[in-house]
UniProtKB/TrEMBL annotation:
TM segment ranges: 28-48
Protein name according to UniProt: Secreted protein
Superkingdom of origin organism: Bacteria
Keywords, in A-Z order: Membrane, Transmembrane, Transmembrane helix
Length: 62
């Protein structure tokens, strides 16, 4: 798994944890954390797919 995908996954997990804490404390700021988690998970998925595609094309050409 690419390093950037791992960083994005870590940000996603931390954002979910922050959202849970925020909602438990009664703050609506958790919505922002949920949105950040969505963006981070999409970034992680993008980097994983990009790495897979890069490996597939390099094995075909080389």
């Amino acid at each position: 798994m690419p390093r950037l995908a791992l960083y994005a996954l870590l940000v996603c997990l931390l954002a979910v944890a922050a959202a849970v804490v925020s909602f438990v404390q009664g703050s609506w700021l958790g919505i922002v954390w949920i949105l950040l988690a969505g963006v981070a998970s999409n970034m992680a998925w993008y980097y994983v797919c990009r790495a897979r595609t890069g490996r597939r094309t390099s094995s075909v050409t080389g």
